[in-house]
Amino acid sequence: MLRVCKFAACVFFLAGLGFACYRSPVDNLDRYIYEAIVRGKSQTIDAVYSIVKHASPRAEQSSILDSPQHLQELEPMYAIRPVYLAAISALSGAVPIQSAISLISALSLFGIGVVVLFWTKRPLLAGLLMFAFPIPLLGRLGGPDGLAAVLVISALWLLDRSTIVALGLLLMSLGVRTDNVIVLFAVLAWLVWERRVTRLVAGALAVAAVGIVFGINRWAGNYGWIVLFRFSFVSGRYPAEIPHVLSVGEYIHGLWRGAYAILDQVALWVLLGILAWRRHRDPLLIVAGCAAAVHFLLYPSGEDRYLIWAYVVAGVSLIRSLDADQPPKPSKGLAI
Hints:
16 helices, 0% strand
């Protein structure tokens, strides 16, 4: 009974954390681009721009949202998340669009916490992990990062329970963030190494994943990786005007700036991952580490929100390592 109470207390804590994040969202620019795309299904671009531009001081001050045309040029870079946009559209029938965006992030954070709780079976440590910065940021951001993270983390948890369901979640996550294809490739490589799937099956899933990503990008009219890289790390205010060329020097400069900006943010989580690996050789640490490293090489952002899912995996692995060398406890034993 005490064990059940501890689990229930942790769930209530996670619900409270999600609610607090819902009530204090981050006023990032991305959330207004997503609102514009959802509104654009039934409104003209001029009407959408007049609403979005004056929705908040953040949007008012944005230099890239200076005309309806430039707003429209930004949308293909965000429209590559059809599953996320569909979720916003579905919830916007009951609540305002910005509230729907915040609600998806808050519910995603709660979902991650529940997965962590049942993965580690240690309510106190699971609650502390979910409260550790910057993990709660997933519940406050106006973007797909939280939903993408809950799908990836759930898939990694389910790998030892149902490989088919886990791979299905990873494929679904491509509709939230197409860059999750990197995680899918890392998982498939590990499954082939462990001989849990054949090379033929892994190859077919990899081809299907690439097809989904290319299909989404073509449907959305996305500009491609080079334009995204230059827009984010080199120069250019309007993506439609950015040249589709990238020199080696420009890439190295962007990579260096990103590495310098993010090093102090990832250092602690890398340390936790190393400690977890030394205590218990969890292969998911290799999967998460390789996927995170490749993602950073392709998109060297100084914002670590793209890597928070890997932070959670490192924390979970460390918590689970506490039981690695302990003998089984009687059923009446209580986990922390």
